[in-house]
Amino acid sequence: MNKINLRACIAELIGTAVLVFFGCGTACVIGCDVTGGYLATAVAFGLVIVAMAYSIGNISGCHINPAVTLSMFISNKISLKDAVTYWIAQFVGGILGGALLLVFFPKSSGLGTNGLYDGSIAKSLLIEVILTFVFVLAILGVTSKVKNDQIAGLVIGLTLTLVHILGIGFTGTSVNPARSFGPALFAGGDALKNVWVFIVAPLIGAAIAAYCWKYLSKNKK
């Protein structure tokens, strides 16, 4: 029986915690106003992915996102056992990142939590599914060829920046259940009440992207 890859799990935990702390922390520091906050926060999330991809990517693949791990499982790139251990590590990392935010920022800052768009669960689910679909499809595409290894982190980081630029104005952009759960756990209130939306929608979007990619790339030479 294969042992749990502890180093990979620790890498996923660290990567997710860094994503939450720096991405959500940037939102807390500068806010998310349309004049500049949107772009700065979007870039922060993207840069974290780039930094982590080139630091822990060769250890765990740098999923740091349960939705990405789900897509890799559906694509037969990771076993169920490894997927489950990654999910646990990612959520623990998200919680750790949320705890670090609370050390430096008051709950009143929002801690970078997500919120329902226009008070609508349906609209929020839909936009998050779309955003995650695009993000995960890009990941599956750029990682499908070994020759893309040197640029994969940059492409993935830029794609995350892209979906944030659009998504922040709707829900704050999740596309990552662990990123949403950690801050919401400490912020409480509506953020915690509605966090299930930002867990379910990214998983649905990732699953759709994975099956879509399997179809598009079938028999591809």
How does this structure look, described?
This protein has helices at residues 6-30, 37-60, 66-74, 80-104, 121-142, 149-167, 177-187, 189-193, 197-216. It is mainly alpha-helical and 221 residues long.
Total domain count: 1
Q: What characteristic shape results from the CA principal axes?
A: globular
- Counting DSSP E segments of at least 2 residues, the number of strands comes to 0
Please report the number of helical segments: 9
CATH topology: Glycerol uptake facilitator protein
Average pLDDT across residues?
A: 94
N-end to C-end Cα span: 34 Å
Q: What is the level 1 CATH name?
A: Mainly Alpha
Note the beta-strand portion: under 5%
Low-confidence parts lasting 5 or more residues at pLDDT below 50?
Answer: none
Order of helices and strands: HHHHHHHHH
The profile of the biggest β sheet is: none
Q: Helices and strands: which structural class? A: mainly alpha
Radius of gyration (Å): 16 Å
Helix coverage percent of residues? over 70%
The CATH homologous superfamily is called Glycerol uptake facilitator protein
CATH architecture: Up-down Bundle
